[in-house]
């Protein structure tokens, strides 16, 4: 039912959404938003309002959201379906209750409604000349001066107060990106460089460690195949980082594989002498896909086109 409802109302609202809104929209994605951020940084928009809406999905006022839907949808049956969706009961500790605010997360209709509620902010900021880039509830505003950034943040605070939302006091700030990094969509930006944010890096590092314990009974080729399945998706998202990031990951993976081999062959000194170095080519021959090599190919493909 929700999918059918989205198919009916999404085209109506999507035409009203601002071009700088990239989340959960056909033909748009994270990399499109990131590209705009990079272009703005390169054009000296280095003062960044890094804002965080606290518990956004859980705090959207239902009555105001329904009013926004009603501005474009006159069919009472459709409005009733949206209202039923928002009024879904929640079972918490065996007690059923109906939240007075919030949009159920994970539902098909949620992304569209969450975009709708912030659409006014998109248009308001653009109308005032601010360069705001938004993906769902994650947004940044890039400015040419500290003063402009401060004015932009004040405007955001006004909207948030009017909309019944809350800015996270500890996660909302202004950054001079030439001196300090800011995070957006899994990336950390500093100057004209971007790299995986600390959380993304830590998650990837932990996963590699899980796949490469010092003692392992499975064949090396199987371990490498598991690593490749993890790194291929990670690289697809973070391929825009500088090459040294991938070089470090390659080194870490090979180092841990060598530790496995040392542990495995420690009781066989003769074989250990013949293979103790295990050069990079040794792992490539067994299927290891170098992230640095993948990045080199990606950069070359961009140059060629």
UniProtKB/TrEMBL annotation:
InterPro entries found in the cross-reference section: DNA/RNA_pol_sf, GrpII_Intron_Splice-Mob/Def, Mat_intron_G2, Rev_trsase/Diguanyl_cyclase, RT_dom
Name of the featured protein: Group II intron-encoded protein LtrA
Organism for this UniProt entry: Neorhodopirellula pilleata
Family: Belongs to the bacterial reverse transcriptase family.
Domain Reverse transcriptase, residue spans: 1-189
PANTHER family given in the database record: NUCLEAR INTRON MATURASE 1, MITOCHONDRIAL-RELATED (PTHR34047), PROTEIN YKFC (PTHR34047:SF8)
Gene3D superfamilies: 3.30.70.270
Pfam families noted in UniProt: GIIM (PF08388), RVT_1 (PF00078)
């Amino acid at each position: 039912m929700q999918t059918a409802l989205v198919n009916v109302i999404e085209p109506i609202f999507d035409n009203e959404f601002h071009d700088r809104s990239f989340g959960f929209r056909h033909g748009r994605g994270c990399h499109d938003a990131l590209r705009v951020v990079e272009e703005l940084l390169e054009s000296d928009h280095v003062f960044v309002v890094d804002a965080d809406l606290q518990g956004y999905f859980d705090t959207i006022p239902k009555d105001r959201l329904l009013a926004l839907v009603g501005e474009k949808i006159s069919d009472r049956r459709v409005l009733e379906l949206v209202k039923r969706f928002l009024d879904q009961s929640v079972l918490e500790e065996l007690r059923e209750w109906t939240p007075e605010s919030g949009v159920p997360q994970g539902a098909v209709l949620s992304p569209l409604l969450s975009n709708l509620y912030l659409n006014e902010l998109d248009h308001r900021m653009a109308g005032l000349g601010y360069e705001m880039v938004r993906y769902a509830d994650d947004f940044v505003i890039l400015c040419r001066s500290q003063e402009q950034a401060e004015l932009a943040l004040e405007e955001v605070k006004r909207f948030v107060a009017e909309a019944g939302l809350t800015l996270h006091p500890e996660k909302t700030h202004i950054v001079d990106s030439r001196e300090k990094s800011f995070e957006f969509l899994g990336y950390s930006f500093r100057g004209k460089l971007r790299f995986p944010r600390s959380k993304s890096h830590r998650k990837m590092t932990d996963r590699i460690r899980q796949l490469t314990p010092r003692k392992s009974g499975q064949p090396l080729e199987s371990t490498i195949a598991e690593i490749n399945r993890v790194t291929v998706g990670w690289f697809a998202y973070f391929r825009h980082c500088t090459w040294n990031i991938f070089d470090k990951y390659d080194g870490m993976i090979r180092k841990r594989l060598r530790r496995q081999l040392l542990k495995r062959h420690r009781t066989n000194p003769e074989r250990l002498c013949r293979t103790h170095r295990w050069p990079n080519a040794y792992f490539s021959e067994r299927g290891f896909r170098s992230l640095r090599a993948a990045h080199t190919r990606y950069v070359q493909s961009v140059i060629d086109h």
